[in-house]
Amino acid sequence: MKIDLTETTSSKINQALVSGRRAIGTPAIGMVLTLVIVTDEENAYDALKAASDSSREHPSRIIAVIKRVSRSPRSRRDARLDAEVRVGSDSGTGETVVLRLHGELANHAQSVVLPLLLPDAPVVVWWPQDAPADPAKDPLGALAQRRITDTYSAARPLDELAVRGATYSPGDTDLAWTRITPWRSMLAAALDQQAAEVVAASVEGESDNPSCELLAMWLADRLGVPVERTQSNGPGLTAVRMETRNGTVTLHRPDGSLATLSMEGQPDRGVALKRRETAELLAEELRRLDPDNTYASAVKFGTDKLAGPEAPAAGSGEKPPAATPAATPAATAAAAKKTAAKKAASK
């Protein structure tokens, strides 16, 4: 069931939610949290679909905040709120409110969202793209216990990752971190089978994939060994190699689906490491609402402490790979500060 409201208010939206539930015969509220999505028209459909799919595991009230850009000075002065209320089969297992904020109202989204939050339920805010430099200090982010960003969607993912580390607050998380959960689990299980100490490691993947940097920083932080960041054509993260005193442990995924785990003295084994959809990543993050201390330690470690890719041998005929922020710490830090300043100025 869908209810369209034009030039409305938060009070009328709440009344529409109650009327919609009664119309479909489910007046009781059985939702466990409020998920606020801050997006634009271009990405709204994909974000809402992912949230709706994840609601099958976490029934929730989904509030999509879409700020409409006003072209003329006069329309920018006018404040208007349009809304679309979805209940029943049109909203997964919860209910959805799509808010379109026009004019000056777009700068005060928190005043519209606050009356729509479920009482006595956790609040999660998700920015599929264009996240603020400091999510915890954002007016909408301040309402939430958990704040989800995605550095992979940024124009300069590695600079964005540096900003995330500099502005981290308890409750922040990143879907780039969620993407490597199966990798971290598999590598930890492999080390449980190896009694030997790890002396060095390397992470191989696409040059602008922040998940690769996060995995490398996690290994360096946890193992206390040098970790080299090397590049490949992808897709995504392609290989991790850990040098131990008993030999090399390798987890190699060349096709983005099936990986091979190789360990000294053991036969190679196939491991399912399929690249997951956004709905699966979101559902994983909604399972925990407490601060992720492991992510905090990894993202604060810093890409400047990782070793960059090695240049090819002379006479090989290959061009050296382009330098990445991991190999140029000064450039990364400067770009991170510049990005944070720009985002702060645009608020």
Explain this structure to me?
- The chain is an alpha/beta fold.
- It has two domains: 2-175, no CATH class; 181-272.
- The protein contains eleven helices and 14 strands.
- It has helices at 10-23, 41-54, 73-77, 109-113, 157-166, 175-178, 181-192, 210-223, 278-286, 293-301, 329-346, and strands spanning 2-5, 33-39, 60-68, 80-87, 95-102, 123-126, 146-149, 172-174, 198-205, 227-231, 237-244, 247-252, 258-262, 269-272.
- The strands form two sheets. An eight-stranded mixed beta sheet has the order 1-4-5-3-2-6-7-8, with helices on both faces.
- Helix 2 (41-54) packs across helix 9, helix 5 crosses helix 10 and helix 5 (157-166) packs across helix 11.
- 39% of the residues are buried.
- The model is unreliable at 310-337 and 343-347 (pLDDT under 50).
